[in-house]
Amino acid sequence: MADITPDTAAVVRIARSHTVGDVLRRTALRVPDKAAIISADRSFTYAEFDEAVNRTANALAVRGIVAGDRVAILSHNSWEVCVLTYALARLGALMVPINYMLNSDEVAYILNHSQARGLVVEDTLFDVAASAVDAAGVELVVRGWVPIAATPTPAGWEAVAEWVDSGDPGEPPVRVDDDDPIRLMYTSGTESRPKGALLSSRSLISQYISCIVDGEMSSDDVEIHALPLYHCAQLDCFLGPDIYVGATSIIVSRPDPELLLRTIQEHKATKLFCPPTVWISLMRSPSFDSTDLSSLRKGYYGASPMPVEVLQELQRRLPDVRLWNFYGQTEMAPLATILKPHEQMARAGSAGRPALNVETRLIDDAGNDVGVGEVGEIVHRSPQATLGYFRDDAKTVEAFRDGWFHSGDLGVFDEDGYLTVVDRKKDMIKTGGENVASREVEEAIYTLSGVEEVAVFSTPDPKWIEAVTAVIVMREGADLDEEKVMAHCRTVLAGYKVPKHVFFQTALPKNPSGKILKRDLRVTYSGAGVAVAAGVEL
To answer: Which residues form the AMP-dependent synthetase/ligase domain (predicted)?
Structure first.
């Protein structure tokens, strides 16, 4: 390459470009008249979607957005979010999706930390956004409006639909390289503020390919996108791959069971992603058995393991649906390992094996590989991995020690290379000097008749330091109490793994992607051990 001039090299790079923006253009050239995006109030063929993206990108450019700028989006699922995803990618600007469950202070932190120059907000979330903008002290050159509730656009804001309908339809004259950052995803905060993971087209497209090949995705898919698009799972494991292969995407605002069931029947959907909690809610719906779900062929789950009892029920009640388990995290764009349909029952509870473009190891604290059956930290090497954490070099260095991305999850390999995720490092319970994986206890409790959902976590304890604590949601008509649960656990678990405390709730706290919020439960029940020691009922 030494004899190639810089000008020639630049021209070659243009010819070899493979960005997220390029992916949509190529799909639109292949299948221009095919349905790309269908929502309640607007739908697009691929040719129309490609043009809408160009118009929006050019409208943003006219208003001052340039490559490298950050534009935040605070909205439930909508066609506007889909258009903005690709419009910002074409400009080389960074899309910053924000969890719509956050309060104004939390949103303000993200706006300030990302130094956002643009914000697009759904009308029902405007009060939160307005307070956040005031607190963040950022100067916005773009203020976009998504009128899901048909609220009139306020002064100083512009409807995204206006950009779509009035912008220049030509492709923006912006050079975006494959490894330029185009996405800034803020990870869920626990004990500290969330980190901003930078992702490039190379990260995302490498991950799309893993999903498409190992997840057996195709252009014939008709997929419902109900889980929040601010989260990397729905956005990048499913919407991105669908656009890549030319599938049809049905956008719904929320994973309401009745809405999902109606949408599957109405659009003859073939493909659906839900975390286990949402699959459970679908099966508990009174409409489940009377809804025509015969079109459904592919089901995916993630965010948390599928309890074996639930997996068996799903396969019994939806026998024609093949299931995949996707495991990963934001920093891996996000897919890391996959458990495939033929492995579901034989390897129940497993996260599968590394995806196509990922290699995975388990290591001890010194960075050495652990043996089969031994617990180690899960680390990955892949082009899917984040470019690093925005404005946080120290955490980037820590995460990429020795040239591997350190996930913070603990796992075990079996003799065939299948991974079982034992716990997050922070979720491992150390009670009386012994390690207890919360997932193992949850699986044991799920085998007890009458259990709808369960979460196991640690609470402070004056004797055990950390006590194994369970919170259970019972099925309707079930008759369970603390002693029955403990007695059952004693028959299947070692004594130190049996919960010291068992509580019952009507529902578990969850984020919009369906993940159970154990940190909230830890706060609620933090005084359990002290109360019991003092003879006080909670």
So the answer is: 25-390
CATH of the domain at 82: 3.40.50.12780
How far apart CA 513 and CA 229 sit, in angstroms, is 9
Q: Give the contacts of 521 (CB within 8 A, at least 6 positions apart).
A: 455, 457, 471, 508, 509
Domain end: 160, 175, 200, which one?
200
More confident residue, 522 or 205: 205
d(CA 418, CA 373): 10
Of 158, 176, 200, the last residue of a domain is 200
Residue 270 lies in a domain: no
Residue 527 in contact with residue 473, Cβ under 8 Å? Answer: no
CATH number of the structural domain spanning residue 473 = 3.30.300.30
Q: pLDDT exceeding 70 applies to what percent of the chain?
A: 96
Q: What is the mean pLDDT of residues 242-256?
A: 97
247: left (phi over 0), alpha (psi -120 to 50) or beta: beta
109 assigned to some structural domain: yes
Q: Residue 235 has which token pair?
A: 């956005």
The answer as to whether 135 is a domain residue is yes
Q: 488-510: per-residue pLDDT in tens?
A: 999 988 888 999 999 999 999 98
Q: Which of 209-218, 237-246, 482-491, 525-534 has the lowest mean pLDDT?
A: 525-534
Pairing of strands 248-251, 35-38: parallel
Query: Which residue has 């491992």 as its token pair?
Result: 428
Quote the domain boundaries for residue 151. 18-24+43-200
Domain count, the chain: 2
- Write phi, then psi, for 328 (nearest 5 degrees): 175, -155
User: In this structure, are residues 48 and 100 in contact, taking their beta carbons and an 8 Å threshold?
Assistant: no
Q: Is 130 a member of any domain?
A: yes
Is 80 exceeded by the pLDDT of residue 467?
A: yes
What is the value of pTM for the model shown? Answer: 0.84
